[in-house]
Amino acid sequence: MFAVEQNKLAGTSQTHGEALIAGVASLPTKAGVFRAVSFSFEAGTADHMALVWGNVSGQHEVLTRLHSECLTGDVFRSLRCDCYEQLQAAIERISKEDCGVILYLRQEGRGIGLVDKVRAYALQDRGLDTLEANEALGLPVDARRYNDAAAMLRAMKVASVRLLTNNPEKIAQLEEDGIEVSERLAHQLPANRFNRHYLQTKALKSGHLLDPARMG
Ligand SMILES: [Zn+2]
Hints:
The protein has one domain (about 20-105, about 145-205): GTP cyclohydrolase II (Rossmann fold, 3-Layer(aba) Sandwich), CATH 3.40.50.10990. It is of the alpha/beta class and about 220 residues long. Helix 6 (about 170-175) links the parallel strand 6 (about 160-165) and strand 7 (about 180-185). It has 7 helices and 7 strands. Helix 3 (about 115-125) crosses helix 4 (about 130-135). It is globular and about 50 Å long. Residues about 1-15 have low confidence and may be disordered. Zinc ion binds near residues 70, 73, 81 and 83.
């Protein structure tokens, strides 16, 4: 059973930036029946969602994936990136565990939003890499933050996580926010001819822990 109850918004004394569970509903998927959990944030509105498998409340070493929204990949299955494959692989992998959670974070385009992401794609079509394109637009290379993710894990009373990630920044930010990351599990999917350069840039310039042999 999923032991997390809906928190009452009134009468709680949350610190700045904490999250409260706002809604919990069953969410059947091809990989099995998950729960969709929505949140209210003290610091403002953010339509993040947790896709929860099993009972994560009070559990240690919960298999966890932080997925930042990528409309072009997640919905249209764009091959410019590996977001769709990463999300689906995470869902499959977590569904084989006793419990686990995917935090779907609404920070499109590494935090620059959809409008600028498409402008950055246009520059990439002219030969810039993903980082250069953001810089040419005067935008941060990676504006993603994981404070909300930490708050969501706290709201669900997840005691510690095993993180599915190639991105050391996610681990650093979660730990900075007081979340215990007991293990990192690599989450690398095979490259295709459209996203190979994007993945190589991630490895070379953004410090992502990717195996070059799998980008060939
Ligand atoms: Zn993507």
